[in-house]
Amino acid sequence: MIRFECDYNEGAHERILQRLMETNMEQTSGYGTDDHCERARVLIRQACGQEEADVHFLVGGTQTNTTVIASILRPHQGVIAAVSGHIAVHETGAIEATGHKVLTVPSPDGKITAAQVKAAYDAHAQELSPEHSVQPGMVYISQPTEYGTMYSKAELEALYAVSKACGLPFFVDGARLGYALASKDCDMTMADLARLCDVFYIGGTKIGALMGEAIVILNDALKRDFRYIIKQKGGLLAKGRLLGIQFETLFEDGLYLEISRHAVDVALKIHDTLKQHGVQFLYDSPTNQQFPILPDSLLAQLSQDYTFTFWEKVDHSRSAVRFCTSWATRPENVEALTRDIVSLLQKDKDPAEFTEAVAVLETAAMV
Amino acid sequence: MIRFECDYNEGAHERILQRLMETNMEQTSGYGTDDHCERARVLIRQACGQEEADVHFLVGGTQTNTTVIASILRPHQGVIAAVSGHIAVHETGAIEATGHKVLTVPSPDGKITAAQVKAAYDAHAQELSPEHSVQPGMVYISQPTEYGTMYSKAELEALYAVSKACGLPFFVDGARLGYALASKDCDMTMADLARLCDVFYIGGTKIGALMGEAIVILNDALKRDFRYIIKQKGGLLAKGRLLGIQFETLFEDGLYLEISRHAVDVALKIHDTLKQHGVQFLYDSPTNQQFPILPDSLLAQLSQDYTFTFWEKVDHSRSAVRFCTSWATRPENVEALTRDIVSLLQKDKDPAEFTEAVAVLETAAMV
Amino acid sequence: MIRFECDYNEGAHERILQRLMETNMEQTSGYGTDDHCERARVLIRQACGQEEADVHFLVGGTQTNTTVIASILRPHQGVIAAVSGHIAVHETGAIEATGHKVLTVPSPDGKITAAQVKAAYDAHAQELSPEHSVQPGMVYISQPTEYGTMYSKAELEALYAVSKACGLPFFVDGARLGYALASKDCDMTMADLARLCDVFYIGGTKIGALMGEAIVILNDALKRDFRYIIKQKGGLLAKGRLLGIQFETLFEDGLYLEISRHAVDVALKIHDTLKQHGVQFLYDSPTNQQFPILPDSLLAQLSQDYTFTFWEKVDHSRSAVRFCTSWATRPENVEALTRDIVSLLQKDKDPAEFTEAVAVLETAAMV
Amino acid sequence: MIRFECDYNEGAHERILQRLMETNMEQTSGYGTDDHCERARVLIRQACGQEEADVHFLVGGTQTNTTVIASILRPHQGVIAAVSGHIAVHETGAIEATGHKVLTVPSPDGKITAAQVKAAYDAHAQELSPEHSVQPGMVYISQPTEYGTMYSKAELEALYAVSKACGLPFFVDGARLGYALASKDCDMTMADLARLCDVFYIGGTKIGALMGEAIVILNDALKRDFRYIIKQKGGLLAKGRLLGIQFETLFEDGLYLEISRHAVDVALKIHDTLKQHGVQFLYDSPTNQQFPILPDSLLAQLSQDYTFTFWEKVDHSRSAVRFCTSWATRPENVEALTRDIVSLLQKDKDPAEFTEAVAVLETAAMV
Fold first, then answer.
1. How many domains would you assign to chain B?
2. Does a structural domain hold residue B4?
3. What are B133-142's pLDDT values in tens digits?
4. Looking at residues A322-329, what average pLDDT do you find?
5. Is residue D351 one of the residues assigned to a domain?
6. ipTM of the complex
7. What's the mean pLDDT in B58-85?
8. Domain for residue D114, yes or no?
């Protein structure tokens, strides 16, 4: 079985494991106060071009989102997010469990716009009795999104400007950040991102590390007592050095972007090959997640040798599925996958159905 | 600098690292659904003699305590714990953050008694208007305790019997469980413990693993939907296999107890050597934490070469401190530590002060 | 200024005030343990035909919803509600503040269907990894709804049957319950309702009382320790007798339904009069809230003498607004209101615009 | 049965009921935006000598404490309170339910000292890893306390000064405030109190009103969005005018202090009479709660005609109990109570036992 259902199917990049071996019997203080964490912080600040940023290391994404959001909002405030945002749909109500509503706005492609943020803010502010509803308190986006799509620099600038104007801290979930920055369609750097938000995080779990997310806090007002919130939410790792060592390794020679690029390259290989064979895609993703629409019969056969994620029914005979690549994806596996799909496609291809599928899809996308 | 301030100063046992290397490029499904986790569950069930137990792997102790407790209590209930319990003092209000009060009972040695649980339960039940105060909803203890002390089998039997009689789930925090089970004073096995509580966990972070705690749920009523709570509280590790692999290694050849025994042996080496030289101890600990009372002047000097934890002032010139050993503690470091303490002691020993310290201490212990 | 913007513009029914005067210097025990509360419970159980029901008195609606919902759900569960449900939009995130997500389903008319509940339940149960999203844990509806619409007995039977089949407690918010039961379109009694749900409440604040809501718990599994939750959520009134006395009065001679009927009668007077003059309505409400669509110019003028609630823009020149009547609405005020609207309508009536408005409205309602 | 077990046994002062009757059919806007609330705010600001204070009306004490505290603290912070504070023991964990720990400090008499606040603050600040424990975030006291004792102006000045120095908002629970201000031992006015804290509330429930507490926010930093928190916590009364009308009445002619004085006068009558007959008291209370120590046999007999609250066993044959008076206490009932106690005392008086009881009590008080 060859796995494409997520981007955390393997362990860690070999250089990370190597480093863990080398440092294993070093004695360090706990909870992220060690020299490896300190060095990783310096490297990340450099990558961000932000000497004053606070950098904290946590273990996983849900924990990170919860910790950041709970640290920012007052009790009556909620967080604006896309209806498809990870915090809205895939964290078992972790945000609500800290007392806050996720204020969702519609999104066909996983992104939200500055205009939507402004509209949500204004709609609340203009209510006759605003205190009867949840006050927007911050803005959450993912870069890239849960659908593999990506914000342009201009879009981020607009979102940050609007958020600032509304007094809403702007938080960017970068669980797959490298896969955006390494995309050839990307017009921004990590330093650009760091200038265009109040707080973001750099995903390690999905990009080379055993586990780990690096939170970068840019806005001074959000820095205070952050370690307390990490501890309370269960995210202060005893052997914090494990996270420090991993981010040190990822950030000392450009490894983070290098391995991200690999994942995107092989993802586009899948995309381009399938597209050449007439396959349509649910979202237009330039990153490591691809969402082709394929015949259900084909998918049934394919699932005997490959794992992937069912996404949604598109019409009576076709579904969109998700293939993820990662830093660890073997080119030969991608080769095999595309070859097998193409071969299955050629067996049961029916151009009429394709046209139909696309029509249905376009209708759906407009909703 | 030689470190004795905690039991998580190093990485992981070499066999664990080895295994992580070997399995690194295996592809597995996420979130603990892989074969390594499954095999680790089987091994732990065997060690517990409980085929029907549910076993879940989490990353750290605060997260584990919060997840277990939040999964059990209804909103108006609190958890009974020693005033020195980890959940009461060292988790930044993580339990309260899930809405629950920690109902502390006094404890001179870190332990609580069946009589205390009964008294707390009865006191509440007999209130004229019990609904005006928090209802005891479960019982929490640590084995060994935060003071290195240990419950005997008889004490656990009594606690479990009382808890059952009161309808209170009984939860044992085993962040350092191996260091109790490996103590030569210990009269119980892991299987005994598993028969004497509703849920407990086996600490890996402090005993050989990079990180990881294995929750063992014995009581069927507590099993339902537990993975939801793990996910919501941020504890569902994406690469769950990392925890599976580590517990597999710790439990396949008795490694867990073997390395625990080492830690206890060297801890007792410290204890016995200092005792021979007349040093008194704050608590009578047969496990990996030792709390000698030493002259402040000595401690000042000692801290130039060693790290340890200041615990409390005992009199005007002496303090209790904590030395932790672990699976990773090097015998030569223990040798050096005891030699240096003894040599410093001999320099400034003053029998009169010792007597005084002991008197003060005994008074304090009686409070 | 004549007020129609809500149904709590006045104090209490005179018989209630009278009774408060008469009983004022009686000495009673606190927190709802007095004889008045006890008698009110008996009367309510009789009205419900449920001798075993638990009855509790709280002060207001948000408090009541929060208390009931928090008492039922486990941490990882959410409550299914219409997107327009009071708990979803008008309680400042009170449900989220207790840790739970409101799982909204679309609703054009304020009601949800048994099929929607089934679909939400199944969709969750069929997820590949359901533990990554919030588990539906109960169902909430309002009778009548926030849009004045009403469930038929058959609809409630279907909802209750589905809820039971899915293991979801079914909760009916009756903040305006009398205004449904007193509607001439209503095909059910309070006893019917009591057979068709697990818990509901009878609104007093909007129907004759100074304040107060009576929770009726039918399902034994939901009764345990309910007073603790009331106290914790701030709803246990010290002078509980005030609520007892009011519900005693409302339920001893059929006063509750009698005054509810008055409100509905005058609401229908508004509805029928406007309809006769060609006015369209946003929702088809047979209860005390009416939502006519009127020209903005008319509304501007009308607002000089009357208060009402702006609801939504319907087209470029018309808006839907809400008029509420209540037990206290004076017939002469309704007379004046309808007369003034009709007279303003005749001044600027333009049949073409009406047609347009209706077209837009119908489109909107289909979404 | 004559009731002395609490200070909310009756309805409301007759002038309040009168006013509710007179205003009953006035139409007002909801949620405290009406003219009565506005006028009550003006009167309270005048009584406080604070033109800029924000004044909000809530229904009950637990609700008020929860709302104020939840509005102030960040997630990792707790509230310092006496171990006997209402929020610590009698609110079913309402504070914990909003995520916050109550950080209790010992108190023999219900009061805490500036030195204790400083010590708690310093102890936390000086921890090696303060982020592992709850950060003190504010200070809570009751004036008068749950034991009837009272802070002097000098004590409040010291508490406020220390709180300010530590950056801790200082909150005074005045559920029985009138009974302190009306005490002849009181050296302060409401205006003094308003100068010496960040936020306090004026209890109405226990002093003349049907229900109601008036929160006075002095510190500008605590004013923002307070109505949102009230609404979320279930405390925004629909017919807010009911609270406005009551506080208007209580504050327009000095009624609040006048009726408070009556309660204190009759309480002291109890105190002085019993003292003359050799009765000892558990606390030295100059307010409306009195805690005499009486023979258990006497109490058993007394309880056939009077209600009062058992407080604690003092020795094998005597207990402390609480008698509360209020604005509504009838002098003839106090007359009867004291006469009956004295007569019972004379029957079974035994000077030897008294002496013993006092000895035991004094020992207990020293702990």
1. 2
2. no
3. 999 999 999 9
4. 98
5. yes
6. 0.94
7. 98
8. yes
pLDDT in tens, A259-275: 999 999 999 999 999 99
**Is residue D96 domain-shared with residue D219, that is, in the same domain?**
yes
What band does B364 get if pLDDT is binned at 50, 70 and 90?
A: very low
pLDDT at B107 over 70: yes
Span B139-167, pLDDT tens digits: 999 999 999 999 999 999 999 999 999 99
The CATH code of the domain that includes B111 is 3.40.640.10
What number is the average pLDDT over the span C301-329?
Answer: 97
Distance CA B264, CA C279 (A): 86
- Chain B residues in contact with C76 by the CB 8 A cut-off are 225, 228-229, 231-232
Query: C200, C225, C256: which is the final residue of a domain?
Result: C256
CB contact under 8 Å between A6 and B30, yes or no, is yes
Residue of D nearest to C20 (CA): D11
A64 and A138, same domain (yes or no): yes
Angle between the N-to-C axes of helices B153-166 and B114-125, in degrees from 0 to 180, rounded to the nearest 10: 20
Q: Which domain holds residue D293?
A: 257-366
CATH of the domain at A265: 3.90.1150.10
Quick one: A238 and A312 in the same domain?
no
Whether the per-residue pLDDT at A183 is higher than 70: the answer is yes
Q: Tell whether B210 is within 8 A of chain A (Cβ).
A: yes
Same domain (yes/no): C73, C17: yes
With contact defined as beta carbons under 8 Å apart, do A170 and A159 qualify? Answer: yes
Calculate mean pLDDT across residues D89-107.
Answer: 98
Instruction: State mean pLDDT over D272-288.
Output: 98
Q: Are D184 and D264 within 8 A, CB to CB?
A: yes
Check residue D307 and give left, alpha or beta (phi > 0: left; psi -120 to 50: alpha).
Answer: beta
The per-residue pLDDT for B264 is 98
Residues A176 and A47 in one domain: yes
For residues D216 and D69, state if they share a domain. yes
Lookup: tokens for D360: 């035991």
Test B231 with C132 for CB contact under 8 angstroms. Answer: yes
Please tell me if residue A232 touches chain D, with a CB cutoff of 8 Å.
yes
Please check whether residue D229 lies inside any domain of the structure: yes
One domain for residues B208 and B103:
yes
Residues of B in contact with D96 (CB under 8 A): 78, 96, 99-101, 134
For chain C, the chains sharing at least 3 beta-carbon pairs closer than 8 angstroms are A, B, D
Predicted confidence (pLDDT) per residue in D203-255, tens digit: 999 999 999 999 999 999 999 999 999 999 999 999 999 999 999 999 999 99
Separation of alpha carbons B6 and B14, rounded Å: 19
Residue D347's pLDDT is: 84
**C364 pLDDT above the threshold of 50:** no
Among A84, A92, A133, A313, which would you mutate to test the C interface (most chain C Cβ atoms within 10 Å of its Cβ)?
A92
**pTM of the predicted model as reported, rounded to 2 decimal places:** 0.95
- Could you say which of D214, D231, D254 is where a domain stops? D254
Q: What is the DSSP string of D317-339?
A: SEEEEEEE--TT--HHHHHHHHH
Residues A24, A126 within the same domain:
yes
Partners of B231 on chain C (C-beta within 8 Å) are 76, 131-132
* pLDDT reported for residue A353: 53
- Alpha carbon separation from B125 to A145, B128, C235 (Å, rounded): 53, 8, 22
- pLDDT over threshold 90, residue A47: yes
